[in-house]
């Protein structure tokens, strides 16, 4: 490497560090505020760090904002949804990647086309339909869609990945008398594990962070999801910023932890969806 | 070799596809028909709907005070966020594409805001934007600029939301970076051999090779950001004077806070046509600037 190239790299590394620290700043600000008193939060010029770290903000916040219950509510929706997405999107992807059947192109085009369809357009008729069957107040309308194909983008991702796996493997198994269900779940699923994990993680994030769905279908406070409860908490406790910040820290912790654990899959998943399309 | 089409595989295929096809019909096709049907009524959910023809649409285009504002706000926000987002993400990706120390670490850092619940981002950003105690106004003060009412001023409210949104676009950086790593080294070396400099490589190889990735990011990000909801719901409530009255927030407000199902469905349908038209325009113009390998 030439000298000017090396100098250039140091400069670039510095610029990246500055932008990176700026990107981290809101997290720092959230955490630091969650350990302050409301008086300290309202100091101007702003304090960089709390004068004393008030750990008891957290027990106090838990007493006015039962995070754990809201998180359990979120998980009650999220976990079945992840299962539904993984199960039904791989089934559809297998049909498109491996089987030949009448109207295949039509269905594929329609399902892929539905990817471009903005979900917000149909919230009213779908709500009306759930009301008509008396299920518009609860978790069912939020979970069921996950079992109906698990969103077009996931079908597409799985299919793209299945197409890269040589057919010899599953054809041999079929000739030996294995069923398609066995081929999919015992032979192919382990081979596309990274995609499945990525889909699972992104589904978690999608449901954990969603607000519009819970707003429409969950009215009772004790059934609220964590993100929904946090939004209500902010509008209801507008001045108690230390608790709002502590509640925010708690709400973002599970996705952030999951990201640290499954980083590789998150990044791979994003790259796959971006480059396979 | 292809699995032969037999009655057996057809049955299996349709069994496997049943959930997805149910989804296609019950989540997409029937609700679309439902939106059209409800939009032709004055339904409020309480009394049986009365057919009013195109009345809702006439009302929206003539007397609805909010509609034009909402379209303008949505388009301004989405275009602003997507264009700034692409510039931000592409720049950072170019920087990260060099062999710098800690590259993997920084890539992870830039990605984190993408997975944070948007309500969490809204809360901390709204506190940083706060006009009396917020840290942004303090930074301005340090360089001698007066306080700005970030989220309350007509000029700054939407740009403030755009900055917050762009912060959350870390996924785009990852996609751009992967795209950059797929640019064949041989092409870049060819420019070098011909005496080209960094700018030539960037302008004549990198940019053309990246157009499909830019296109994908632009399209997907437009569709996502046209549906912006949380910042309007949690922070600005459509204010100041309709500048953040984004379409989905308006639909939600009409449909679920005021129970005007008919009116809200008409808005949804217009919103759909609006996005579809925009997508068509993006696809049509993409032929002019998109580069396909092998062409």
Quick structural gist:
The complex is a heterodimer of chains A (277) and B (295). Chain A is mainly alpha-helical and 277 residues long.
Descriptive overview:
The complex is a heterodimer of chains A (277) and B (295). With 277 residues, chain A is mainly α. Chain A has helices at 3-34, 38-41, 57-64, 67-98, 104-113, 123-132, 140-143, 152-163, 168-175, 180-191, 193-209, 212-217, 226-236, 241-276. In chain A, helix 9 (168-175) runs antiparallel to helix 10. The radius of gyration of chain A is 24 Å and the shape is globular. The two termini of chain A are 36 Å apart. The model of chain A has no long low-confidence stretch (mean pLDDT 91). Chain B is an all-alpha fold and 295 residues long. Chain B contains 13 helices and no strands. In chain B, helix 3 crosses helix 8 and helix 12 (247-257) runs antiparallel to helix 13. The mean pLDDT of chain B is 89.
Topology:
The complex is a heterodimer of chains A (277) and B (295).
Chain A: H1 3-34, H2 38-41, H3 57-64, H4 67-98, H5 104-113, H6 123-132, H7 140-143, H8 152-163, H9 168-175, H10 180-191, H11 193-209, H12 212-217, H13 226-236, H14 241-276
Chain B: H1 7-39, H2 55-62, H3 67-96, H4 103-115, H5 118-129, H6 135-142, H7 157-167, H8 170-181, H9 185-193, H10 198-226, H11 230-236, H12 247-257, H13 261-289
Helix pairs in contact in B: 1-13, 3-7, 3-8, 3-10, 4-8, 5-11, 8-10, 9-10, 10-13, 12-13
């Amino acid at each position: 490497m030439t000298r000017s190239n090396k100098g250039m790299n140091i400069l670039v590394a510095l610029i990246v560090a500055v932008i990176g620290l700026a990107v981290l700043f809101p997290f720092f600000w959230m955490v630091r505020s969650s350990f302050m008193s409301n008086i300290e939060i309202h100091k101007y010029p702003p304090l960089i760090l709390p004068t004393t770290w008030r750990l008891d903000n957290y027990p106090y916040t838990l007493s006015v904002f039962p995070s754990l219950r809201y998180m359990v509510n979120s998980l009650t929706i999220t976990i079945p949804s992840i299962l539904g997405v993984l199960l039904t999107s791989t089934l559809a992807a297998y049909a498109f990647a491996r089987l030949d059947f009448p109207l295949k192109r039509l269905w594929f085009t329609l399902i892929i086309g539905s990817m471009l369809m903005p979900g917000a357009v149909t919230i009213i008729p779908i709500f009306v339909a759930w009301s008509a069957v008396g299920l518009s107040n609860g978790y069912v309308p939020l979970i069921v869609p996950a079992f109906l194909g698990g969103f077009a983008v996931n079908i597409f991702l799985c299919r793209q990945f299945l197409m890269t796996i040589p057919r010899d493997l599953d054809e041999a198994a079929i000739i030996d008398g294995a069923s398609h269900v066995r081929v999919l779940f015992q032979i192919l699923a382990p081979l596309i594990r990274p995609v499945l994990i990525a889909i699972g993680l992104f589904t978690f994030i999608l449901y954990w962070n969603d607000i519009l769905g819970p707003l429409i279908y969950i009215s009772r406070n004790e059934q609220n999801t964590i993100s929904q409860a946090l939004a209500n908490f902010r509008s209801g406790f507008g001045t108690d910023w230390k608790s709002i910040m502590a509640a925010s820290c708690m709400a973002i912790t599970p996705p952030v932890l999951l990201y640290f654990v499954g980083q590789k899959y998150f990044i791979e998943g994003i790259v796959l969806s971006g480059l396979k399309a | 070799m292809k699995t032969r089409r037999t009655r057996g595989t057809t049955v299996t295929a349709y069994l496997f596809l049943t959930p997805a096809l149910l989804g296609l019909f019950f989540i997409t096709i029937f609700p679309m028909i439902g939106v059209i049907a409800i939009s032709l009524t004055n339904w409020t959910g309480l009394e049986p709907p009365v057919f009013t023809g195109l009345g809702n649409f006439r009302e929206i285009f003539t007397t609805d005070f909010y509609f034009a504002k909402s379209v303008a706000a949505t388009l301004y926000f989405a275009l602003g966020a997507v264009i700034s987002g692409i510039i931000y993400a592409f720049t950072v990706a170019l920087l990260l594409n060099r062999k710098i120390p800690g590259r993997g670490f920084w890539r992870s850092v830039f990605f984190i805001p993408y997975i944070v619940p948007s309500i969490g981002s809204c809360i901390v950003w709204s506190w940083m934007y706060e006009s009396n105690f917020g840290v942004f106004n303090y930074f301005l003060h340090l360089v001698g600029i007066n306080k700005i009412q970030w989220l309350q001023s007509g000029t700054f409210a939407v740009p403030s939301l755009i900055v917050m949104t762009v912060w959350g676009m870390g996924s785009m950086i990852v996609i751009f970076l992967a795209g950059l790593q797929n640019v064949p080294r041989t092409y870049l070396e060819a420019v070098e051999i011909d005496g080209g400099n960094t700018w030539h490589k960037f302008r004549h190889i990198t940019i053309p090779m990246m157009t499909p990735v830019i296109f994908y990011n632009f399209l997907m990000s437009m569709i996502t950001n046209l549906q912006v909801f949380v910042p309007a719901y949690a922070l600005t409530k459509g204010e100041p004077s309709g500048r953040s009255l984004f379409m989905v927030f308006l639909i939600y407000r009409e449909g679920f806070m005021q129970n005007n199902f008919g009116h809200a469905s008409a808005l949804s349908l217009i919103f759909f046509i609006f996005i579809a038209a925009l997508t068509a325009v993006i696809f049509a113009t993409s032929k002019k600037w998109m580069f396909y390998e092998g062409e």
